[in-house]
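Hey, weird one. I pasted the Glycosyltransferase family 2 protein sequence into the form twice and got a warning about non-standard characters only the second time. First submission, copied straight from the form history:
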Amino acid sequence: MKLSIVIPVYNSEKTLAPLVARLQACLDGHDFEIVLVNDGSRDRSEAVCFALTEQYANVQFIGLRRNFGEFNAVLCGLNYVRGQYAVIIDDDFQNPPEAILTLVNAADAEGYDVVYSRYARKQHAWFRNAGSRLLNKLATYLIDKPEELYLSSFKLIRYEVVQEIIRYKGPYPYIDGLIFRATRHVGSVEVPHHPRQEGQSNYTLKKLVSLFLNVLIGYSVWPLRVFTLVGVGLFLVSALVGMGLLIGGLADWFPVQGWYIVTWAVFLLAGLQLLFLGVVSEYLGKLFMQQSGLPPYVVKHEVVRQSSVGSPQ
């Protein structure tokens, strides 16, 4: 099989059937499958997914018991793919299905393990665009991403890399972080980005902050190193200031009031300790959750066929 199309589904009852129909049309003649992962939708998306498995022989469906998040749903879908390439595409039509072949052609021509899409202009709210830029900048330092590469959700992943990604069993998957742990042979191609057809984006400011913290804390020890350097710097500055106060007081260069020094030292050390305790607590919390055996997702329904072809039943 050439292609596996993974679609994380969340509250998309109106766009899902048209999206699958368009995929069937634009990929006609190709050997492909579609893997739908319903991430605890609150509308009729689950019923639509079941109907699509009845209508098309190449549609697989996995329903999760609750909303686990987009990355968790994608990780679930990647566990079911069988194609030479897995393509992840959103359910809102902002990524045109026709662009899938653009990603495939780039992978075939250059031999890339992963091909990301990039956009001349993104049709998102300003805060989401700002959050994406911040996360991309952060990823450059945390996961050793090339600075010019844009990490988009619409991407192609070679099967061998998929097999490395799905080895992750923790509750906090970050797909791009897992990709760069497996390969550096990554490219990108420009594709259109369209306005959302129905509803509003499910990425709230709260979810963006949660994703930011997950990337910052869960996929690098960089914050610990930064705070360690900050601690060393503050210690050295404090030592120099303390020596200056001591020498200045002994030499009678200026008056030194003891309660100023005590207050300054207490606030400095208390703030530094709280800062370090907060960072260490984040790491310990992540470690606890990973070692607690919590799965990244829990499957409720599963409609999977042993063989499928790109045509209706």
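That's the output from the first submission. The warning seems to come from a hidden character in my clipboard, not from the data itself. The chain has a mean pLDDT of 82.
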